[in-house]
Specification:
The structure holds two protein chains of two kinds.
Chain A: H1 5-15, E1 39-48, H2 65-72, E2 75-85, E3 90-95, H3 101-108, E4 116-121, E5 124-125, H4 131-140, E6 142-145, H5 157-161, H6 163-168, H7 172-185, H8 201-214, E7 219-223, H9 231-248, E8 251-256, H10 259-265, E9 268-273, E10 276-281, H11 283-288, H12 293-299, H13 304-307, H14 310-313, E11 327-329, H15 334-343, E12 348-352, E13 355-360, H16 362-377
Parallel strand pairs in A: 3-8, 3-9, 6-7, 7-8, 11-12
Antiparallel strand pairs in A: 1-2, 1-4, 4-5, 9-10, 12-13
Helix pairs in contact in A: 7-8, 15-16
Chain B: H1 26-47, H2 62-80, H3 82-105, H4 119-134, H5 136-151, H6 155-185, H7 187-202, H8 205-216, H9 220-245, H10 248-256, H11 261-294, H12 304-312, H13 316-349, H14 352-378, H15 380-383, H16 392-409, H17 411-435, H18 438-453, H19 455-470, H20 474-504, H21 506-521, H22 528-534, H23 539-564, H24 567-575, H25 580-591, H26 593-613, H27 621-631, H28 636-664
Helix pairs in contact in B: 1-18, 2-3, 2-28, 3-6, 3-9, 4-5, 4-14, 5-6, 5-13, 6-7, 6-9, 6-11, 7-9, 8-9, 8-27, 8-28, 9-11, 11-13, 12-13, 13-16, 13-22, 17-20, 18-19, 18-28, 19-28, 20-21, 20-23, 20-26, 21-23, 22-23, 23-26, 26-28, 27-28
The chains are: A alpha/beta, B mainly alpha.
The complex binds adenosine-5'-triphosphate (ATP) and magnesium ion.
Residues 48, 75, 77, 95, 97-103, 257 of chain A line the site of adenosine-5'-triphosphate (ATP).
Chain lengths: 378, 667
């Protein structure tokens, strides 16, 4: 646990404006107050077991998970986690099995009660909300998509999608209209009257998706939504999420243990191990400078040229801005920039907006690509 | 008193919680049992006949006399005591409701020569309900069954049985479903109620006959309460199981959408558990029907009365007809509820057009039913079941003569079998158990309980033995125990043979299983009829009935166990050239040990309840005293004591069997 939330804050300025700039509300500086972030988590703990609340604040809390379990019988599923999610962002949480991802995401709306810490969603402190407020929050502001779909087998697709509205007390006509809209949006038109067990896995998860979208939440949470699907359908569904994100622009917290998926979807990625944060950063950043061996191991198989941007490849020339030759933007992915760099005579200048960052030449590009080949070859 | 709710294939597998057990060293268990038995036998040989505590049938111990006194003071208090006002209110209420149901459907209403609704009306209602719930095939079945009520001459009794069963089941649903839901949703409730259910299910129904009669008086109310006590535990358990079985994922997803707790129950848990709950109602119904005959002891109305009378008169034909009608009622109710639970889903999913057609058909049939009811109120021929053709006499005579012929022709074989078992098994065992000094048997049983199950069941056994001694029925309890053990041994032998056969051969399984399922629908009392046809009234007859009652469940358990042995192991053994016998003895049976142990356990409990009932057909001992307690006033105390002794015996056997099963059943 070397990276903390200060790490996160430090790097915010540097990352702004990267990746698709069209996302609203992203260019106006680092969200350092909870008021501006869609979701803000501070010092969150979850310890399973009897007398779990007694553990926090004692030296026991710092023990590694195994030792704590041996000593007190408690399992620390989430340990002192803090992070912020910006409005409109896709925030990915990843880690190996048992690292506490599912627990973390359930703590956010208190499907599991936190042992300590605060969660603030849209400026409201969730951890202090009473039952009524909490229900309100779940009904209107946050929706979740589950790994095993969690559909109601006795209801049709239509009634499953409208379930959140029904629970909320929306009149039948309005409910059906909205549900129909969502069914169309996720591409299930024609299956309104089917029952979940008559659908394929991918279609079932589309129902789950539509159900979550139907309540028009401000924050959507996904707990490994596609890991039960086979690879082709998984890719379809990932594209679907990307499309929906473009269309409806929701803030998303996305749990996965699949790095490819994380890199594909995430604006930022949080990596967890044994309940603790190991690193938070943009995909390219994590690939370029892994915080420790755990992360390095994680990203070792990644095709680096697909992820790394010029920002992480360029270097400061000795003499400052050479002032001539072709120029490229820093958020260009190496793979896309390769042709231009190789075609150019001499180094290519890299800019972050107006600011000069450095230069890349053929050598730098080849180093990335060749390293990748070697990694695959070995 | 079965502790199982897995009586039928449709029931969900409700696994009993296995008791915590101490570490064990299996290699010593068998040797230790032998050692205990050896000491016991030696002690018996030396001290046989001394201090056996046997008490002649008409003689009462002090405790039993005291119970007689209690009864008298209860009877006296009934008029004055305020607590009895409440009980009296309940009992009057139940009697009133049932009486008016009878006026409506089965007995002449005041001021009329016939019930309010005549037979044509009743028939129409039953067929309509069966059709609406379960479809055409069930409706035909119900039609034929209901006609059989009339033609076999037991119209009123059959309708009474149906009414009392349905009324009891209704009460069970009203009480049981909410309790089941509560248990599923609250850990505290579960912890508090589970032991009560355990107790209710271990207690043989015979044991609470007399206390109930004491409190509610003799009559319909007692019969209903008796039935409810017996039938409600499976419903509660299955409801709880159903609600808890609702997928975590669906519940969590619903919570994440902001469901309130009542919304969760109404929109998610109940609909998703509906099928299971209907299975629970089905089990509850079968259990209620199992009480139909026993209820006759407390003057409950219905088919139980003729069955008892025929049994008492050793009239096999008569008992077969009236007992057969109970089976008909059982099949009608079972098929209808099972089909209903299966169809519920289909109907919910049917298209709109289908739903509309169905509505129209139902509306038409409803009109027909109403017309039938109306007609049955106007015309005597539609109100009173036609007296001809009266099939009862010819059918029962026919059955009697056929059984006579059959029994005569195989008498040699049956007598020989009876003798072998009596002289080879029952007599020696009974002699050791009952003719040893009481302290020797008591110590030996304690030692066996300890060896088999550890100190927990041994403590239970100690308490139960103290109860047996305290109520003054030690010797009779040992005699009953003998029958139970013998029957259990036979059940295990038969069910292992059949079960292995079924487990190894698909074809055998497909042929036998429906029979076993059907046998399990039959109320236990009915098993006495064929047993009594084959053998003269004796201990042995009761054992045969118990055997017939216990074998189906045990066989199915063994068969499932054998079937469950991993195919890879079987293949591996085959590959190494094992013969069929080696395969059974060295691979399949050892690997299915858990199932065999469970089958023994279940068989034991079934057998106990049956052996007690067998008191009626010459089984003697505890069961006989319970019955005698009703007919002879001065024996009431002894009957009540016998009920207590049965309970103690049941709990003792159940605990030992369960702990032994938990210890030795793990693979
Ligand atoms: N209800 C619980 N009681 C006790 N321990 C729990 C409970 N739920 C989770 N845990 C423990 O907390 C840890 C984190 O579990 P969690 O399910 O959050 O992991 P995960 O990262 O989602 O793993 P996966 O990728 O397998 O879903 C695990 O060690 C798990 O054993
Ligand atoms: Mg998980």
């Amino acid at each position: 646990m070397t990276q903390t939330r200060t790490y996160d804050d430090q790097n915010d300025g540097q990352k702004d404006g990267q990746k698709d700039g069209q996302r609203g509300g992203r260019n106006d500086g680092a969200p350092d107050g909870a008021g501006e972030s869609a979701l803000s988590v501070r010092d969150l703990w979850k310890i399973f077991g009897a007398r779990a609340d007694k553990v926090i604040g004692t030296p026991d809390a710092d023990l590694p998970r195994k030792q704590l379990q041996a000593k007190t019988g408690c399992v620390a599923a989430v340990k002192d986690v803090s992070f912020d999610v910006r409005p409109g962002e896709v925030f990915v949480v990843m880690g190996l099995s048992g690292s506490g991802k599912s627990t973390l995401v359930r703590l956010l709306t208190r499907l599991i009660e936190p042992t300590a810490g605060t969660v603030t969603i849209g400026g409201e402190d969730v951890t202090k909300a009473d039952a009524g407020r909490l229900r309100d929050l779940r009904r209107h502001h946050v929706a979740m998509v589950f790994q095993h779909f969690g559909l109601l087998p006795h209801r049709t697709v239509m009634d499953n999608v409208g379930f959140g509205l029904e629970v909320r007390g929306v009149a039948k006509g309005e409910r059906r209209a909205r549900a129909q809209e969502m069914v169309d949006l996720v591409g299930l038109a024609g299956n309104e009257g089917s029952f979940p067990d008559q659908l394929s896995g991918g279609m079932q998860q589309r129902v789950g998706l539509a159900r979550a979208l139907a309540v028009d939440p401000t924050l959507m949470m996904f707990d490994e939504p596609f890991s039960a699907l086979d690879p082709l359908i998984r890719r379809d569904m990932q594209n679907e999420v990307i499309r929906l994100h473009h269309e409806v622009g929701k803030t998303m917290v996305f749990i996965t243990h699949d790095l490819q998926e994380a890199l594909k979807l995430g604006d930022r990625i949080l990596i967890m191990r044994d309940g603790e944060i190991v690193q938070i950063g943009e995909p390219a950043e994590i690939v370029a400078s892994p915080a420790d061996d755990y992360v390095r191991d994680f990203v070792s198989d990644v095709p680096r040229s697909h992820v790394l941007t010029l920002r992480y490849v360029c270097r400061r020339p000795d003499g400052g801005d050479p002032g001539e030759g072709p120029a490229l933007q820093a958020d260009e992915v190496v793979r896309d920039a390769a042709r231009q760099v190789l075609a150019a005579h001499g180094p290519v200048r890299v800019y972050d907006g107006e600011d000069f960052l450095g230069i890349v030449d053929d050598e730098d590009i080849l180093r990335v690509v060749v390293a990748e080949e070697e990694a695959v070859g070995s | 008193m079965s502790t199982t709710v897995t009586r039928r294939p449709s029931a969900p597998p409700v696994r009993e919680e296995q008791p915590r057990v101490e570490e064990h060293r299996p290699q010593h268990t068998f040797g230790r049992i032998l050692a205990v038995v050896a000491v016991w036998v030696v002690g018996w040989a030396v001290l046989r006949g001394h201090q056996t505590l046997s008490l002649p049938g008409a003689q009462l111990s002090d405790f039993q006399k005291w119970l007689n006194g209690v009864k008298n003071s209860f009877d006296a208090a009934r008029e004055t005591n305020p607590a009895f006002k409440i009980v009296g209110g309940i009992s009057d209420g139940l009697n009133w409701v049932f009486l008016h149901l009878q006026y409506l459907f089965s007995t002449p209403a005041p001021g009329r020569p016939v019930p309010e609704v005549g037979w044509v009306g009743v028939l129409a209602i039953l067929v309509f309900v069966a059709f609406a719930l379960a479809g055409v095939r069930c409706a035909v079945l119900v039609l034929l069954g209901t006609l059989a009520f009339g033609f076999l001459g037991y119209w009123q009794e059959s309708i009474d049985t149906l009414l009392i069963t349905l009324l009891a089941v209704l009460i069970c649903v009203v009480i049981g479903v909410p309790i089941g839901i509560w248990m599923a949703r609250s850990k505290g409730a579960r912890a508090a109620i589970t032991p009560v259910l355990d107790g209710m299910q271990t207690m043989p129904s015979f044991a609470y006959l007399e206390p109930l009669a004491l409190i509610f008086g003799i009559g319909t109310a007692s019969a209903i309460v008796l039935t409810v006590i017996y039938a409600v535990p499976p419903l509660i358990r299955i409801t709880e199981h159903g609600i808890r079985g609702v997928s975590e994922g669906a519940v969590e997803a619903s919570r994440s959408l902001g469901c309130t707790s009542p919304q969760l129950l109404r929109k998610v848990q109940l609909p998703m558990a509906r099928r299971t709950i209907v299975v629970g109602v089905n089990q509850c119904m079968m259990a209620a029907l199992a009480m139909a005959i026993i209820a006759a002891f407390v003057s409950g109305p219905g088919l139980g009365v003729p069955v008892m009378q025929s049994l008492a008169a050793l009239d096999i034909g008569g008992a077969a007809v009236s007992g057969g009608l109970i089976v008909v009622v059982a099949i009608m109710l079972d098929r209808t509820t099972t089909a209903a639970s299966e169809r519920a889903e289909l109907l919910a999913r049917a298209g709109r057009r289908h739903v509309q057609t169905r509505r129209i058909v139902l509306a038409v049939l409803a009109v027909v039913t109403v017309v039938a009811i109306y007609v049955s109120r106007l015309r005597l021929s539609a109100a009173q079941f036609p007296s001809s053709p009266a099939l009862q006499r010819p059918v029962s005579t026919f059955i009697s003569s056929v059984t006579d012929t059959v029994v005569n022709s195989i008498e040699k074989a049956t007598t020989a079998f009876a003798n072998v078992v009596s002289y080879g098994l029952i007599n020696p065992l009974q002699s050791v158990l009952a003719a040893s000094p009481w302290w020797l048997s008591a110590l030996a049983i304690l030692a066996l309980a300890y060896v088999l199950g550890g100190w927990r069941p041994a403590v239970t056994a100690l308490v139960c033995e103290a109860v047996l001694l305290g109520v003054g029925l030690w010797n009779d309890s040992m005699i009953t125990l003998t029958s139970v053990l013998v029957a259990t041994i036979l059940v295990v032998i038969v069910s292992v043979v059949l079960g292995v056969w079924m487990g190894r051969r698909r074809r055998v399984d497909t042929i036998l299983r429906p029979f076993l399922d059907a046998l399990q629908t039959i109320p236990p009392f009915v098993y006495l009829v064929p047993a009594l046809a084959l053998f003269p009234p004796s201990r042995f007859t009761a054992i045969v009935a118990a055997l017939a009652y216990g074998v189906p469940i045990a066989t199915k358990l063994v068969a499932d166990g054998i079937r469950g042995v991993s195919p890879t192991s079987v293949e591996a053994a085959e590959a190494s050239g094992a013969t069929a016998w080696q395969m059974i003895a060295k691979v399949q049976l050892p690997m299915a040990r858990a199932a065999v142990v469970l089958a023994t356990n279940q068989g034991l409990l079934y057998v106990l309840s049956m052996v007690v009932i067998g008191g009626l057909v010459g089984g003697g001992s505890l069961g006989y005293f319970v019955v005698a307690g009703f007919s002879q006033d001065q024996l009431f105390g002894k009957g009540l004591a016998a009920g207590i002794a049965i309970t103690a015996l049941g709990i003792m056997l159940d605990r030992i069997a369960r702990h032994a099963a938990a210890r030795h059943g793990r693979v």
